[in-house]
From TrEMBL:
<feature type="domain" description="ABC transmembrane type-1">
    <location>
        <begin position="75"/>
        <end position="269"/>
    </location>
</feature>
<comment type="similarity">
    <text>Belongs to the binding-protein-dependent transport system permease family.</text>
</comment>
<dbReference type="InterPro" id="IPR043429">
    <property type="entry name" value="ArtM/GltK/GlnP/TcyL/YhdX-like"/>
</dbReference>
<keyword id="KW-0812">Transmembrane</keyword>
<protein>
    <submittedName>
        <fullName>Amino acid ABC transporter permease</fullName>
    </submittedName>
</protein>
<keyword id="KW-0813">Transport</keyword>
<dbReference type="Pfam" id="PF00528">
    <property type="entry name" value="BPD_transp_1"/>
</dbReference>
<feature type="transmembrane region" description="Helical">
    <location>
        <begin position="249"/>
        <end position="272"/>
    </location>
</feature>
<feature type="region of interest" description="Disordered">
    <location>
        <begin position="1"/>
        <end position="24"/>
    </location>
</feature>
<feature type="transmembrane region" description="Helical">
    <location>
        <begin position="120"/>
        <end position="140"/>
    </location>
</feature>
<dbReference type="InterPro" id="IPR035906">
    <property type="entry name" value="MetI-like_sf"/>
</dbReference>
<dbReference type="InterPro" id="IPR010065">
    <property type="entry name" value="AA_ABC_transptr_permease_3TM"/>
</dbReference>
<keyword id="KW-1003">Cell membrane</keyword>
<keyword id="KW-0029">Amino-acid transport</keyword>
<keyword id="KW-0472">Membrane</keyword>
<feature type="transmembrane region" description="Helical">
    <location>
        <begin position="81"/>
        <end position="99"/>
    </location>
</feature>
<keyword id="KW-1133">Transmembrane helix</keyword>
Length: 283
């Protein structure tokens, strides 16, 4: 039986007068087109926008100047509500994380039900429940706005923190746990001195993101009714929106104040992520 002779693969012939474009040239052309589109959009917006109307409705310097003097107490209240909610959410979330990892099934069921419930409902409903429904149902009074905000937002935050901590604990290498147990450390001592410190280092970046989310969620507590001394940033912006001139200037100023809190936290998150990645690579 004879086999047909194999022919050499034919090279793809380009049409006459047409040159092959290198990948680097194509990448440059693509970037140039993207820059051109971006510049065209910016120029079109700059030409077509009525800047005098935008300035008067979005950022009126006179209205902004009046509001800035009222912002420091509201900014401090926002920070207090955030820290209070985190102080409630962190220990509760840690407890739930340990319950989800427990060998006792009812503990896992309770923790799972809690996490699924509070992750599945809007935070606004929890805030309203803590502010109005729970005091009526149980005949109790929560006079402090800080306590109401801390409990309501902390309950919601604990569900997310629990999942973050559980993932961090499970990410600790099993070999380190086995090494600690081989040295004679008890299960509890291994958990507290080996697992938990490493887990917290792993979850520091997502935990910082949780603080950013809590900061923004404090905008919900104005629905509970506040004294002037308890105003947070959204309450100041909402009231000024309905009473002062300047269109959306009040919301613009309130949003800028939120950025004073969240932007440094975002930078901290990225720094922690880089540091955690470097330690993971053994540098």
């Amino acid at each position: 039986m004879t086999t047909a002779p194999q022919t050499a693969p034919q090279t793809l012939q380009m049409p006459p007068g047409r040159r092959r474009t290198s990948p680097r040239t194509r990448a440059r052309i693509t970037r140039a087109v993207q820059y051109a589109v971006l510049v065209a959009v910016v120029v079109a917006l700059a030409v077509l926008t009525d800047w005098s109307n935008v300035t008067s409705q979005l950022f009126d310097p006179a209205v902004a100047g009046e509001l800035i003097g009222r912002m420091p107490p509201a900014l401090w209240n926002t920070v207090k509500y955030t820290l209070g909610a985190f102080a409630v959410g962190l220990p509760l979330g840690a407890l739930l994380a340990f319950m989800k990892l427990s060998s006792v099934a009812p503990y896992r069921w309770i923790a799972t039900a809690y996490v699924e419930f509070f992750r599945g409902i809007p935070a606004l409903l929890v805030v309203l429940a803590i502010g109005f429904a729970v005091p009526i149902a149980f005949g109790i009074s929560i006079p402090s706005m800080l306590a109401k905000a801390s409990i309501a937002l902390g309950l919601v935050s604990a569900a997310y923190i629990a999942e973050t901590l559980r993932a961090g604990i499970e990410a600790v290498p099993k070999g380190q746990i086995e090494a600690a147990r081989s040295l004679g450390m008890s299960h509890g001592r291994t958990l507290l001195q080996v697992v938990v410190p490493q887990a917290f280092r792993i979850v520091l970046p997502p935990m910082t993101n949780e603080i950013i989310l809590l900061t923004k969620d404090t905008s919900l507590v104005f629905l509970l009714g506040m004294q002037v001394a308890e105003y947070e940033l959204t309450k100041i912006g909402r009231d000024a929106l309905s009473t002062a001139q300047g269109g959306l200037t009040a919301l613009f100023v309130a949003g800028a104040c939120y950025l004073i809190i969240t932007l440094p936290l975002g930078q901290l998150t990225r720094w922690l992520e880089r540091r955690t990645a470097m330690k993971g690579r053994g540098k």
